[in-house]
Write a structure and sequence with these properties.
The complex is a heterodimer. Chain A is built from 15 helices and 2 strands. By secondary structure, chain A is mainly alpha-helical. Chain A has a two-stranded antiparallel ribbon. In chain A, helix 5 (120-133) packs across helix 11 and helix 13 packs antiparallel against helix 15 (277-303). Chain A starts with a helix and ends in an 8-residue tail after the last helix. By secondary structure, chain B is an all-alpha fold. Chain B has helices at residues 2-12, 15-25, 28-70, 92-101, 103-134, 140-152, 155-167, 182-189, 196-209, 213-220, 225-236, 238-254, 257-262, 269-274, 276-285, 294-329. Classes of the chains: A mainly alpha, B mainly alpha. At the A-B interface, helix 2, helix 5, helix 6, helix 10 and helix 11 of A face helix 3, helix 5, helix 6, helix 7 and helix 8 of B.
Chain lengths: 311, 334
């Protein structure tokens, strides 16, 4: 705030202060509130947590005492804590196969929801429901209850959708020959359909927004040329939504990684509640480092395939 | 000339004959294309319906289950013949859950916190986003990098130091903000609340998408940048404001991690719901240690879920249009 006042004062006193400089000062004025907040509520805590990760932290009556340990916490996380590296591996693998599925699924649904048909408004409303419910403890209870009525994950689902049904369907169709791996893959997908549908609300929303930005001239041209729906998808739809594929991948990765229900997060949180802050911070930083690296690699690869209309 | 004959044809022939005539004029490829298109147009709606209906069911399933559970007696849970339609209807479960959650007080608290925080956060994020969108200053890239970091770093990484920060606010021993509403309001005011980084990004994209001319006109008329922002940009951004506000309400509503970290006695709907087990034992048996049969407990839990999503569902039902259409115009897209 003070900067802005200063800027105004100096602006009226000496009009020699160039327009550019004045605008720059106004810019600082606009972001100053955020900057103060971000130093207090983001940067300092972030720095502290990095500092904790190299220390043995003990809390006494609301004060934290630190004792320098160097890299010991990091070594402990990998060497002494077998579960941690195992959890980390599982989370990574899960993210690796779930993200593409979510992206493909949400793009498919977005394309459908973008067509004109009766009851489209209702269908859209239903498919966006997970956006408003899926982040809270409600989802936890939904998942938990499905677990507690026996039958592992999908509980009553399994009777309707899951494994056996798929297996039987394949047998019915006379497909015995597919390898076990393939069968296993189909089963996993069927088992996880609930999770996938429920975590692709925002992605559908973004893809739909992108689809509606496709100029109608492109569609008309494709129709004139007699493009099939398949060709239309690959030649028109896909290039236009490709920037959003990146955005959606990043969003999905962050979302699955930072979900409090994810096992690594759960492990870090339980360490925190047993007062092992140093180790917990170290694990959090390892985890965060991996997330950043993953996003970096994805961005690098996907960026090569993106089509930007302008720029 | 040719148009004229076409018009004449239309008048003379029936539509079927006209179609036939048109087909005859086409090449073979064109004809096969039209035929195939007609076929696809007939079959596809059926498949589309199956897909939408099936997946819509997957989404609605938990909600239907909630409704089915919340109004049944707990003994129906042990009855294997009861799957969807309860045998004994009762409102007792709902009443008990409302009592256990202290629902009306909690709702009031949550709304106060939610609406207030969302409002100040939207304002502060809009101001910051505008600053990033329209002004050039030194270090802008680095500062914007921090915004991106805010999106990427999970709250869990910084929650403990943040706790200490509130415990001894600004390094002072005396100011203890833990368990006050300030722990929510202060970050929200400074655009650092729940998903603040994402909201700054949305506003930045949105303001960048608006034409510069409208501002230049205001500048020429002698408006300062801040007045320009309030008088010219804000009215233009009304739909973006509403969309972001709605999302913010939803995020604050669903948050329980941040609230459980900083609140010990202040309850929100989400925190109450996440420790519903203990509350139930307390409310029903006056003893927090009693464990209710997990199978029977489901009825109360589902009732709790139903209660806690109802307000947000009502909001969604009323403003559904803005949720789904607003985001398209809010600039996330570009």
């Amino acid at each position: 705030m003070s900067e802005k006042v200063k800027a105004k004062a100096s602006g009226t006193k000496r009009s020699r202060l160039s327009y550019e400089r004045r605008k720059a000062l106004y810019g600082y004025g606009f972001i100053s509130l955020w900057l103060i907040g971000t130093i207090i509520f983001f940067l300092i805590p972030l720095g502290k947590s990095l500092w904790y990760s190299f220390n043995n932290v003990t809390i006494t009556t609301g004060k934290s005492n630190t004792e320098w340990l160097g890299l010991k916490n990091y070594k402990d996380a990998f060497l002494n804590d077998k579960e941690f590296s195992e959890d980390l591996r599982l989370t990574l693998i899960e993210t690796l196969w779930k993200t593409p599925l979510i992206i493909i699924f949400s793009l498919f649904i977005a394309v459908i929801l973008n067509q004109k048909f009766r009851g489209r408004a209702l269908a859209r409303a239903v498919f966006f429901l997970p956006v408003i419910i899926a982040t809270g403890p409600v989802l936890k209870i939904i998942n938990g209850d499905m677990g507690s009525t026996e039958n592992t994950k999908a509980a009553q689902f399994s009777t309707m959708f899951s494994t056996d049904l798929v297996g039987e369907l394949l047998q019915f169709l006379g497909i015995y020959g597919i390898s076990d791996k393939m069968g296993l893959m189909i089963q996993t997908v069927a088992d996880n359909i609930f999770g996938i549908v429920w975590s692709s609300g925002i992605q559908i929303l973004l893809f739909l927004a992108a689809l509606q930005n496709i100029p109608s001239s492109a569609r008309e041209a494709a129709q004139m040329e007699g493009a099939t729906a398949w060709e239309y998808f690959w030649k028109i739809t896909f290039p236009y939504v490709s920037p959003f594929i990146l955005a959606n991948i990043i969003f999905t990765v962050i979302d699955t990684f930072t979900n409090p229900m994810n096992i690594v997060m759960g492990r870090i949180l339980s360490l925190k509640s047993s007062w092992e802050f140093g180790l917990a911070s170290a694990m959090a930083w390892i985890y965060f480092g991996i997330v950043l690296a993953a996003i970096g690699i994805i961005t690098f690869i996907v960026n090569k395939f993106i089509y930007y209309e302008v720029e | 000339m040719s148009e004229k004959t076409a018009m004449a044809d239309k008048n003379k022939l029936s539509s079927r004959q006209l179609k036939k005539l048109r087909m005859e004029n086409m090449t073979r490829e064109e004809r096969s294309y039209v035929k195939r298109k007609a076929l696809v147009d007939k079959i596809w709606p059926f498949f589309r319906f199956v897909i939408i209906f099936g997946l819509g069911f997957v989404i609605l399933y938990p909600l239907l289950y909630m409704i089915s559970c919340a109004f049944r007696d707990k003994m129906d849970m042990n009855d294997p013949t009861v799957m969807w339609v309860p045998r004994h209807y009762t409102l007792d479960i709902m009443k008990e859950t409302i009592q256990a959650m202290d629902f009306w007080n909690t709702l009031k608290n949550t709304l106060l916190l939610n609406i207030g925080c969302s409002f100040v956060q939207v304002v502060s994020c809009a101001v910051t986003g505008y600053g990033f969108a329209r002004f050039n200053f030194k270090g802008k890239k680095i500062l914007f990098g921090i915004v991106i970091m805010m999106i990427l770093v999970p709250t869990q990484v910084i929650s403990l130091p943040l706790y200490m920060q509130f415990r001894h606010f600004l390094g002072s021993e005396k100011i203890n903000l833990i368990d006050t509403m300030w722990t929510m309001y202060l970050p929200a005011m400074t655009a650092n609340g729940i998903r603040g980084g994402l909201m700054i990004l949305i506003f930045r994209q949105f303001f960048r998408g608006l034409p510069r001319e409208i501002e230049d006109a205001a500048y020429i008329d002698g408006c300062g940048p801040f007045r320009t922002f309030v008088m010219v940009m804000v009215p233009n951004a009304a739909s973006a404001f509403l969309t972001v506000f709605l999302f913010s309400v939803v995020w604050y509503w669903n948050d329980y991690y941040v609230s459980t970290t900083f609140f010990t006695n202040t309850n929100t709907i989400a925190t109450v719901l996440s420790d519903l087990d203990i509350r139930l034992s307390k409310a029903l048996f006056n003893d927090a240690t009693i464990k209710i049969n997990p199978r029977e407990q489901i009825v109360w839990k589902q009732a709790g879920c139903l209660l806690s999503i109802t307000p947000i569902l009502v909001l969604y039902a009323c403003l559904q249009k803005y949720f789904t259409e607003g985001i398209e115009r809010s600039g996330i897209v570009s």
